[in-house]
Amino acid sequence: MPDSIPLVNLKLMHDEIADELQQAIREVIDSNWFVGGPVFQRFAAGVASYCGVDHCIPCGSGTDAIHLALRAALGIGDGEQEVITVSHTFVGTVEAIAQAGYQPVLVDVNPQTYVMDLDQVEKAITSRTRAIVPVHLYGQMVDMPRLAQIARKHDLVVIEDAAQCHGATYDGYKPGQLSRAAAFGFHPGDNLGAWGDAGAVVTQYEPLAQTVLMLSDHGRQSKYEYGEVGMNSRTDTLQAAVLNTKLRHLDRWNTSRRQIAGWYREDLSSDTTCILPAVDPKAEHVYHRFVIQVDDRDDLLKHLQKQGVGAGIHYPIPMHEQPAYEFLGLAPHDLPVTHELCKRILSLPIHPGMTRAQVQRVAGLVRSAVAV
């Protein structure tokens, strides 16, 4: 059997910049700053600069980032106030909303781009709605100019879930530039990934940034004075060093991802049984995932895995069909697009450094399987 092709190849990326990573880690060890310190501050400043915003507050995870941004913007919810988001997402999006004391209101996604359907958002707004959390899924941003208009019209806060779109833009805007704040996660498999858990809130609003900083550090106002009930959610300095090193390579790696996506499109576009991901013409996609739609998705997944291809499913069970969120009272077909997508979507391998030959092999296996 030919060599296996993993869904994500972190070793390839890390080997490429091994000397830089070792130097960054050594700086942390030599400094003995393992929480905070100059390396941590450089990382925060680097992310803020990269995103074109004034403030970045690193925290423990992407889930924490959403939670902290909501609390800083709105306070703790009363359980009746609503925050609109999508069902087709990682659980952390909805989890963070619920943990902040808000009722998640789940809407459907666009059947072509798989991101939040803004027509459905307008229909879901009620007198209890306080915020909207768009999810920039698979590396493509939601139409933020339009969403910002909707939010202004109804006096709502927007907190972006940007965990899958490091480096993406919409109409030239980056996450955090048209919203109250954007929440990033840095899971190891993300376009910009740590060596563990980490996250960040980016924002143009200094009061919100200061509140997030306080809440993420136990509600601390001074060394032994605590103004609010906070949480311990800080990016440790070793993770900051790794991420700061990798941030320098992010644009190049995203360019590689777009090239690989282009190869997939060349090799799969003639197959009418395989639906390729649509890209909004105003969006610069960074392809955290390259997802296709096919009939008999589960059979194709087994076939690819048997041939050593690390395909995956993101995500097989939408949030409104999860046992934890039965209390929302939604039936599967209440969100018909999401319900069907979750039965048809398959993630193909994509990572910087993937070769043309590897893409051809994966695409060939897909074509041969769906043609049967």
Percent of sequence in beta strands: 5-15%
Sheet with the most strands: spatial strand order: 1-8-7-5-4-2-3
Under the CATH scheme, the architecture of the largest domain is 3-Layer(aba) Sandwich
Flag low-confidence runs. Answer: none
Structural domains: how many: 2
> Globular, elongated, flat, extended or rod-shaped: what is the shape?
globular
Mean pLDDT: 97
The sequence of SSEs as H and E is HHHEHEHEHEHEEEEHEEHHEEHHEH
CATH class of the largest domain: Alpha Beta
Number of helices: 13
Q: CATH H-level name of the largest domain... which superfamily?
A: Type I PLP-dependent aspartate aminotransferase-like (Major domain)
Portion of residues within helices: 40-55%
Overall strand count: 13
CATH topology assignment of the largest domain? Aspartate Aminotransferase, domain 2
Span between termini? 21 Å
Query: What summary fits the major beta sheet?
Result: 7 strands, mixed
- Any idea what the radius of gyration is? 21 Å
Global structural class: alpha/beta
